[in-house]
Amino acid sequence: MMDILGSLFSWLPVELWIMRPELCLTLAAFLTLIFSVARRAFQPRWLGYFSIAVTAAVGAPLLDLFRRTTELPGQEFVAWNGMFVVDSFAVFFKVLFLLAAILTMLMSIRYLDVEKAHTGEYYALIMFAVVGMMFMVSARDLILLFVGLETMSISTYILAGYLKRDRRSNESALKYFLLGSFSTGIFLYGISLVYAVTGSTHLRVISDAIAEGLVNHPLLVLGLILMIVALGFKIAAVPFHMWVPDTYEGAPTTITAFFSTAVKAAGFAIVLRILVEGMLSARMHWAPLVVILSAASMIIGTLGALLQENVKRLLAYSSITHVGYLLMGVLAVQRGADTGARGMVAIAVYLLAYTFMNMGAFGLVVALRREGLVGDQVDDFTGLARRAPLAAFSMLVFMLSLGGIPATAGFIGKWYLFGAAIKADYVWLAVLAVLASATSLYYYLRVVVRMYMGEAEEEGGLRPSGALASALVISLVFTILMGLYPQPFIWLAQHVVLY
Amino acid sequence: MSSSHLLSWIAYLPLIGAALLLLFPKEQGRRMAWFATGWAFLDFLLSLLLLRGFDPADDSFQFVVDVAWIPSIGVRYMMGVDGISLLMVLLTTLLGVIAILSSWSAIKERHKEYYIFMLVLQTGMLGVFMSIDFFLFYVFWEVMLVPMYFLIGIWGGPRRLYAAIKFFLYTLLGSVLMLLGILALYFFHHGEFGTYTFSIPELHRLGALTTPEWLEMQKWIFLAFFASFAIKVPMFPFHTWLPDAHVEAPTAASVILAGVLLKMGTYGFVRFSLPILPSATVEFVPWLLTLSVVGIIYGAMVAMVQKDWKSLVAYSSVSHLGFCMLGVFALNVNGLNGGILQMINHGISTGALFLLVGIVYEQRHTRMISEFGGLSQQMPGFATIFMIITMSSIGLPALNGFIGEFTILAGVFQLENKIWAIFAVTGIVLGAGYMLWLYQRTMFGKLDKPENQNMRDLNFREYLTLIPLVVLVFWIGLYPKPIFRILDKPVQKLVQQVRGTYYSGMAVAERAAEAEADQSGTTSTGMH
Asked: For residue A406, which residues of chain B lie inside 8 Å, CB to CB?
């Protein structure tokens, strides 16, 4: 299969050949758009299946690239004057985006029918967003990175407001758009300042320039700070998190799931690209800021989630806490082989685990949605253990995993991140993190309490669509598998290293 | 079944049983009870096989299973038992059968989930005692919270939700701090020996190290471990989750909680803190002994004024565990022997006490001591067994409690400072006070409450749950030698591990003192 696909593209020049995944996905997105015009001939549902199939198929060239980039450490393909790079770091994140996109689309098919908003554009937008993310993680030039970021952002602004008759969805999109474009502006300003000082937008050139003595240049530091602020918006770190609860609550649940996994992972990928590949020599400038972001995210995220009655808001705040944990991984990246890799591997492991468990948790919220029930209140889970034992069990696993209880994926992720923090001598931050994670069990268990210890007011189990059920099963199986036998996942994540 | 995987079989058999329970139709509650009891009994029999192959003359881990699990981070699937953990495993499998058998009539709804959680809990606890890889240990240590949380939260008393979440968060808070300690240990070991490992025999090597950096670090790691183990034990002042959890939990969960779960804390101290962090342990020992003694007296005094039968027993646990810790922190052979034996004894006697309360509660739906009186006329069998257990609990000679407390006190009296021993003895007096007073108020006097007049005596199943414990009470009381024989080697090794560096540390201090004394021209008095 891979050989066939490989030979299919072998006539391409190498610049395009390494962009096969992006090209395929872009093409598929356009096709979906064109097909969706002819609504009679192509039902949106079938466009959904088509998009899922294409996204899954894009995995094949990616795996091929993964194999090639991991043959030797540091192996990479560079094209377009060094702007576009395919290394194992980029490929890992691309696989993660595809995974999140597939799970999102699987969850969407019935959901959009219930919301009466099923059109083909939805899938095309998701694919465009993924293409944007793919360019982001492959960009070694700030301009290309910015273009990728905007491609992703604009697609996600639209997706957030996709339920156009729903006021909450509109509010969600508007807030997301306003704050998002604001942060984009700040980001661009940061880039221009860095360019002014170093004379380049290429990360390697910037890195060299910083190492050669520009490190304390005030404009460079200002540019760096502005970029961190903007990235803080994108990954939703406190104090740049204000949009998160409303956006997560109002956006279609499937899209919220997508935001909290793929979009967040893309944000962390560029954080690493910029701070590690471009600015590692300026670590003394960015590390204190990241410490503050991390600690504040853990504290505010945990406190915010404690009393939420809405599951989507709860998960929104919890995702802020998780950003706090992940930022410890960024801090752990230092000069020095062993420690440095540990931070990045930790982030990769955590994002992988987080994708499965968070997708699963949102998937359950989607499963509760039906005519006349939004299904996003904690109370909507009451008595689920009796009505649908398997669904309740899945939710239990996802909640425990998010809380970092062993034998689930979340624990492995936490183990890695906390270990990275300890190893990098951020012990107090690690203590804060474990306190936050213990406290977080309180709100995750609130859902469990309703499911297992509350009496159901209604009868009848959940009847998720086949696609949604398969998404849930995938999430569940991987959440448990990664908890019990994490070796292959860790092996995968160990390739996430920037040289 | 290969004998080298015997431990794994014992650990996972209950889990297999839990999976099989899924196949039962929802209505067949009684059949599930039979099945779960039989299955747990099978596990108990299997664990008895350990006794046959166990060599008490060997102080290392036996029946070892060692398989690579997560090679990237040096985690191995390692199981093994020494004398200490062997006894804990046997206690767990035995109390497991008894607890499940005791729930037949108490559990009236959601049978399937109940027995599944009970069996999963068994696997978790057995795993804790068998793991000799710290990572694996931690996995079992935390996973086991989940079934217990459900057991309290679903089948508990009126304030069950509060008690369940309090139990969960309290213990979790401790364990996450321990996680940081484990990580620090893991990295330090790598720095020292160049390998990433969680293997406990391997980590024990750190105990002999005396670099100043390590001695400083030991203190922090000790505190991190202490957070976890002291909450689990529970030591004063970290005990506040215990009365709530005990009072609200269903009888069987209380039995397991008191009998096995609390022992995980003491076991943790014995297995990790003492041998890996000896100098920190020695440094903190005055504090630890003080907390233990305060626990003994405070627990006893609070037990004295309880109006609720079950919470009286719960507070008595705080007091008794104080004794266990006192023995352990005496850090000598007698103290540790007694402390570990008392862990077993407490499992037996307090387990039985909770069973007895449960039996009364099932009939009367109240546990207020003032509601009872004169029950011995109505329930002679119950009264007899209750008397034996009471005597065991207060340490009457010829019963198990005496052997434990006596050995502990023998160890504590060996300490330089006798103050702890003196205070501990008052705890025994108080213990006799509240237990006998409880007995008097419930069993003797006039049977004046009409509700109590048609209470029935123990039935066959209830006898079946209590008789094995009574037998053990007498056996350990009259002939404890087999148990001491099993404990002998590992305890000696432990004392060697703790005291070895202690003595060498003392020797250094002594030499320094002597040198100083020589310089100033006075004669050295020496230390010992």
From this structure: 138-143
